[in-house]
Structures are given as C-alpha cells and as structure tokens.
Amino acid sequence: MSGPFKLAPLPWDEDALAPTISANTISFHYHKHHQTYVDTLNKLVAGTPYADMKLEQIVQKTTGAGDAKEKQIFNNAGQVWNHDFYWRSLTPSKTQPSAQLDSAIAAAFGGRDELIAQLAEAGKTQFGSGWAWLVSKGGKLAIEKTPNAENPMAKGVNCLLTVDVWEHAYYLDYQNARPKYLEAVLGKLLNWDFASQNLTKEDQAVRAAAE
Ligand code: MN
C-alpha cells in the first residue's frame, strides 16, 4: 500500500548472515514483521499531522503517549525505526571500530569482550520482547535495554548498535534459546563501521549544539 513511509532496503542479501541468522528468518522478519509495521504506520498517520513528519520526529513526539491511537502510532513508528537500525547494526563483513570508538570502548568497558558480555546480558534479561542497545551520551558509551517498540532515540539518546530480542528474531533458528542467538550474533555480526559512524554523528551534534 502507499503512504509516506517505505520499507527501506536491506543492506545485504537475505542469505548473507547465514548460518548465524538464516535467510528464512530474515525473510519472515523483513517481509512480514517489518513490512507490517510500515503498512500499519502508513494507515495510522493518514490524514494526521504525523503524515508530514520524519520518522524520528514521530517516535520522539509519541513516546509515552497516553492516547490509544498515539500509542499505536508510537508502537509502529518505533518498530520501523528499530528494525532499520537493527539491519544496519549487522553485517557479514569483518569490520573494526574506529580509533575514536575503540578508545571509548576501552574507557567504558575495558575492552570489546566486556562490551559484548554486557550487551548479551542486557538482551538476556530484557523480560519479554524488546531490544538491547549500545548508546553514547556525550561520547561516553553505555548499554541500555528497552521493551517492545521503545528505543533510546525516543528520549534523544544517540544509538550506536542494537540487537532485536523479540522471539521472531531468533525462533526459527534457535527456538527459545535467546542466549545462543545473542552469543552468535554479537560475536559474529556486529557492524563496527556503523557504530563508529554513529559515534561521529553524536560528536557533530554536540558541537553544533554548543555553537
Ligand atoms: Mn523484529
């Protein structure tokens, strides 16, 4: 269906993350789940001021909404944004953190193994559906977890990476074993180029805000 929001293309082929994440999982996750969030968002915003807003603006304006329709808009807009961000957080290519990200990781976690251990723990302990995040606040890195469609960006926090811990992200490949999915994905697929670029964006935003 038509509307202001489109399903963004995947950054790699559907089988590119196999065997860590199968083409079957990516196909269902992208063409069914992600597509449905886009379609539902388009239906919900039709004829409202949200139809002319950027996705990020909608997420920030509707987070914590009490109104039932606004809550629905948040849930779908958040899930569209989260999935776009998740696909770009993963890559089959070997990537490395930039020098800037590397020193931020060393300062916050002592090293990448500890970062990954904390991100895995956040994903494992997110009760029910949700997301685990690597974020930066003034260049200082931290791990966060959010339920359902929520994300740190809604509250103005700069996100570097995310991992989807809704069951649909892993059930076909790992059944109920969320920790095995997290161990495999975090060990093999994180896109450190994407995280490095996102850290630079916060730097630019902080400088622009200070001028
Ligand atoms: Mn998902």
Protein described:
- This protein has 211 residues and is mainly α.
- It has a three-stranded antiparallel sheet.
- α1 packs antiparallel against α3.
- The radius of gyration is 17 Å and the shape is globular.
- The structure holds manganese (II) ion.
- Manganese (II) ion (MN) binds next to α1.
What can be said about this structure in brief?
Helices cover 53% and strands 11% of the residues.
Number of helices: 8
Give the cofactors and ligands.
manganese (II) ion
What's the total count of β strands? 3
Radius of gyration: 17 Å
Low-confidence stretches: none
Write the topology of this structure.
Elements: H1 23-45, H2 55-62, H3 68-89, H4 99-109, H5 112-125, E1 130-137, E2 140-147, E3 158-164, H6 171-174, H7 178-188, H8 192-210
Antiparallel strand pairs: 1-2, 1-3
The chain binds manganese (II) ion.
List keywords for this structure.
binds manganese (II) ion, Helix Hairpins, minor pseudopilin epsh fold, mainly alpha, globular, three-stranded antiparallel beta sheet, 211 residues, 3 strands
